[in-house]
Amino acid sequence: MGNGMSAISLKNLDVSYGDTRVVEGVSLEIAEGECFGLVGESGSGKSTVLRAITGLAPDWEGEIDLFGQPRDKSIDKRFAALCQMVFQDPYGSLHPRQTVDATLSEPLAIHGIKDADRRVPEMMEACGLDPRFRFRLPHQLSGGQRQRVAIARALMLKPKILLLDEPTSALDVSVQAEILNLLKRLRREQGLTYVIVTHDLPVVSFLCDRLAVMRQGRIVEVADVAALKTNTMKDPYSRELVEKSTTRITA
Amino acid sequence: MSEPLLDVQNLRVRFPTATGPVEVVRGVSFTLGRERLGIVGESGSGKSMTGRSILRLIRKPGEVTADRLRFDGKDLLSISEREMRKVRGARISMVMQDPKFSLNPVMTVGEQIGEALAVHEKLPRRQIRERVLTMLEAVQIRDPERVFGLYPHEVSGGMGQRVMIAMMLIPEPAILIADEPTSALDVSVQGEVLKIIDELITRNGMGLIFISHDLHLVSQFCDRILVMYRGEVVEQCAASELDKASHPYTRGLLASVPQLNETRELLPVLDRSQWETA
C-alpha cells in the first residue's frame, strides 16, 4: 500500500482482559482512505483490536500509531477528534433519554465547538436523516435510523478514521443495504479510513479493499479483497471460513 | 400429507393505539405438517407476532382473532388459559432469539431444563436429572454433568442457545416455533445450532416454524417459505424455488443482500412505493 504515512499502524499489539490475553502480536498497516476488514469467529479478538485502538481496552502492549502519532493509554481529546467508533447495536449505543440533537451536539460541546446549530442538521442530512427526527428520542426511531444517528455522532468531530464494529449485523437486509451504501458514500465524500469488524464476508466484499483473518487472537492472513471474491486466500483456515459462510447449514 | 398439525386461517393481531387500532398481522393463513416452514420478513412485518399468537403470547391490550387456529383437534383461541398451559411448552414450544435474555439468570442450566419437564410431567427427581443429561447430550454439549450445574452467564451464546433448545424439546412437543434462533449467534456456531434443530426435528417427526429475517438461511434450511410484509403473506413458495420468487418485495430483498463476489458499486434499496400502491 502506498508509501507515505499509514493512517493506522499497529505493531506487535497484545491486548488482555484481566489475566486472559485475547489479542497477540497483531501488526497491521492501514493506509489513509483504505477500507480494511477484520474477520473471524467470535472470540477471535477482532473487536478487541478496535477496542484497543479507541481506548476501551486499555490493557495493551505494543504500539498503536495513528497518522504517525503514537497513542498513549489515557483519554485524549485530540485522539477522539481523529478516530471514532460505531457499535453493533444501535439500541444499546444511544442514550435512551437524549434526543438526536443532544446526542449529536454532545461531542461538539465536549470539544468546545460552538456552531452545533449549523453542524447538527448538516450531518443529519449527510447521513440521510430527515430533519424532523432532530428532536426525537431513540425509541421513536427504527433500527436503521438509529444506526444512522450512531454514524452521524461518530462523524460530528470530522474524524479521519472510523472504526466500525459489526455496524449492520443487527439490521434487516434491506436496511443493511441502505447503511452499507451510506458508509460507502460517506467514505468517498469525506475521505475516511475505515476499519470494519464483521463476520459477514459478503459485507467485506462489498465495502473493503483488504482484509485480515483473525483466529484465536492472531492474524492468520492479510489479503486483498480480490482473493476473497475468488476464494483464493492462502491460509486453509481463511478458506474454511469462506466455505462456512457460503454453505452455512451443510457445514 | 395427512391432517396438518396446525391449521391457521385468517389470523389477525391488533393493537389499540391513540390513533385507532393498528393491525400488525392481517389475515395470515397457512397449514403446517411435519415439515420445516420458514417465515421471513423484515422487522415489523408481523412474523414474530404470528409465531407468538399461535401460543397466545400476545399480551393485552393486543387482540388476536382468526377464523381458525386449530391444533390437535382443539381451537387454540377458545380453550381456557388452563388448557392452554398444557399445550404451551408441552405440545408447542418456542425458542427465542437471545439466550441471554430468555434464560433465568439465577437458576442453573440443569434446573431450568428440568423445570420445563417437571411442569408437564410428574417424574422422580433422579429420572428428571437423567433426562436432562440425555437432552444436553442430544444438543451436543460435550460435558453435560458439568454444564448441568452452570449458570447462564457461565455459558457462551451458542451453548446458551443449545440449552434453550434442550429446554424446549425436552417435553417432546409436536411443533417447535423458532424465532430467530441463530441471529444472536456467530456464523460458525449458527450452522451447528441449525443442524441440531434439524436432527431433533427429523428424529421426533415434529413440525417446525422457523422465523427469520435471513432469506438465504431460510431457503437453505426450510422446505417451504412464507414471505411476510406489513402483516400479510405476500409470497409462498417451496424453499428451493425462492430464486424464482415473483413478488417485487421478495425480489428486492434478495437483491439487497451483498454477495461474496460483489461487484455492484451500490446495493439496490427497496422501493416500497412500487408495490404498496398496487
UniProtKB/TrEMBL annotation, chain B:
One of its GO terms (cellular component) is plasma membrane. GO terms for biological process: transmembrane transport. The keyword Hydrolase does not apply. Transmembrane segments: none annotated. Keywords: ATP-binding, Cell inner membrane, Cell membrane, Membrane, Nucleotide-binding, Translocase, Transport. It is a peripheral membrane protein. One of its GO terms (molecular function) is ATP binding. Pfam families: ABC_tran. Residues 6-255 form the ABC transporter domain. It is found in: Cell inner membrane. Its main location: membrane. PANTHER family: ATPASE AAA-TYPE CORE DOMAIN-CONTAINING PROTEIN, OLIGOPEPTIDE TRANSPORT ATP-BINDING PROTEIN APPD. Belongs to the ABC transporter superfamily. This is ABC transporter ATP-binding protein.
